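Hi, here's the filled form for the chain we discussed.

Project: internal
Contact: R.S.
Residues: 185
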Amino acid sequence: MPTVGVIGAGIAGLAAAYRLHRAGVSIRVLEATDRTGGVIRSESTEGFLVEHGPNSIRAGSVELERLIDELDLQNERVWANDAADTRYVVRDGTPTPLPMSIRSFLSTDLFSTRAKLRLLAEPFVGTAAANDESIADFTRRRLGPEVLDYAVAPFVGGVFAGSPETLSVQHALDRLADLEAEYGS
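And the returned structure, exactly as it came back:
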């Protein structure tokens, strides 16, 4: 039986290798560095534990739940504390709460008046001409550059450990793409 090479021992490479192994395929994982995990790693700095990589996973995925069950990791999950509901974004060196309601959005200093007006115009923005669009292009087109910089980019970095410039909105945030296709907004 031929051996399948899996390039990279980050979370995606390890998950692919696991699935192939479970299917009875001979595998070899190739990693360029001296450790597994890709961007996910823990570091002790000045007495504090710093976690690098995505800080959350998208709950509700049937495949993800199945993988957690197969690996017997249910008891390893760490759920967000309700006291941590307020998210902060740093703008001009100042941590500012991310608005989570229309009222807090209208009163926040996080976004300029121009950005707030731009966001309110979202229902009037046309749909994309391209078949596939990055999260960054989608956000700039529909919501404006400030919303990309101070809301969407931090979210994407935290959830996907990736750049909104390179991630596909149709794949990473498919529900947004579906809503635009179905309702235009």
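Let me know if anything looks off before we file it.
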